[in-house]
């Protein structure tokens, strides 16, 4: 079973990963975006880590709802409401249970990803974070490591795609040949989840 | 004349200058629009380009006269932030609606219509209709 501390460590692991990878995310966002993805997410996850420390939410759902709210208010770019909605909706789906099973997390994450698709209007194949998140959620039934591998494969597989959502879509065919920054950061978020589970020996 | 019953208008842009300037332009073109509560919410709190949920929420609260608030946005994170806030509930005044309209033309149409004392649905319809005015 996964408790609030597990979810808190997932978020702090994600914050550390975004801190480490911020320059790479911004570099990926330079040819096809506005070169702020790493900076924006770094600001958001720094706020998440700090809010989790001061507010100390007591349930898995509350951890993710708080993290999501921070991302919506602090990021400043489109990734804020998108990741914020992902975490907040996942957290709401987890309810107020003190512990949740991996199956419950998988089902809740599915709701979160569906909410992101509803908010941004992106579908798989549009060269967005959805291309990492959907395969990850699909693979989560086979464990956290499988989800991580699926997310990373999904992110890499965005390279030959033409963007159909977001700023990159204005570039048309010129968006082909670049890995999507949002799919890349989504893979980092899933990898942080797998790292947290591995550290627990889950 | 009291503006108590007028619909409020919020203009959300990635740029503080764009939001503030379109707000001034719309009020000017609306003539009697000086009475309409219009608030810009442009850029981030740090003064950069982007969208601030806090600035959007503050702008919406500042124009709420109890008769609804119409929110117009430019692109990307402006749209997604307002939608996420509306889905969240509790962050924006009751009867706040995101209006699907071209930013400049829609803002003018919304302010002109709101100045007549029209309700939120009429303000929204006028702003949305701005999409149909062809220029060529």
From TrEMBL, chain A:
Keywords on record: Kinase, Transferase
Keyword Transferase in annotation: yes
Highest taxon of the lineage: Bacteria
Any Pfam family hit: Dak2
UniProt GO MF annotations: glycerone kinase activity
Name listed for the protein in its UniProt record: Dihydroxyacetone kinase subunit L
Organism listed in the record: Streptomyces luteolifulvus
SMART domains: Dak2
A cellular-component GO term for this protein: cytosol
Ranges for domain DhaL: 5-195
GO biological processes: glycerol catabolic process
Keyword Transferase: yes
Cross-referenced PANTHER family: TRIOKINASE/FMN CYCLASE, TRIOKINASE_FMN CYCLASE
TrEMBL record, chain B:
PROSITE patterns membership: PTS_EIIA_TYPE_4 (PS51096)
Domain PTS EIIA type-4: 6-136
Keywords: Transferase
GO molecular function: phosphoenolpyruvate-glycerone phosphotransferase activity
GO biological process: glycerol catabolic process; phosphoenolpyruvate-dependent sugar phosphotransferase system
Top-level taxon in the UniProt lineage: Bacteria
Any one Gene Ontology cellular component term annotated for this protein: membrane
Protein name per its UniProtKB record: PTS fructose transporter subunit IIA
Organism: Streptomyces luteolifulvus
Lineage: Bacteria, Bacillati, Actinomycetota, Actinomycetes, Kitasatosporales
